[in-house]
From TrEMBL:
It comes from Triticum urartu. This is FBD domain-containing protein. InterPro entries: F-box_dom-containing, FBD. Residues 14-92 form the FBD domain. It holds the Pfam family FBD.
């Protein structure tokens, strides 16, 4: 069940329309629907967004490799449909080690 209200373009949110240029999400868990919906809301509605940075958690225990997970994340976030076509979407993956891997989903 989707309980999140949809953004009504006829009753615009000024911040999304004119001001929000950067979003940083830390400890993002893309496997959970609420996290996904939260990030997707900003991508699909922030018209002047320049950069979204996602600090994601990835576990080696998952059933897919990290490249497959990045493809899944890109599809779920609907990056190609973002409101600001100039926005870059960068995912910094922490694999529960000191190693951090960075991916640019916007290309």
């Amino acid at each position: 069940m989707n309980i999140a209200p949809k953004y009504d373009q006829l009753d615009p949110i000024e911040c999304l329309e004119l001001h929000l240029k950067e979003v940083v999400l830390k400890n993002y868990c893309g496997g959970h629907r609420l996290y996904m919906d939260f990030a997707k809301f900003f991508l699909l509605n922030a018209k002047v967004l320049r950069k979204m940075e996602i600090g994601a958690r990835y576990s080696y225990k998952s059933n897919c490799n990290i490249d497959d997970w990045m493809c899944y994340l890109r599809r779920q976030l609907q990056v190609e449909n973002r409101a600001s076509k100039d926005a870059s979407v960068e995912v910094k993956v922490n694999k529960f080690t000191r190693h951090v891997r960075t991916h640019d989903l916007s290309v």
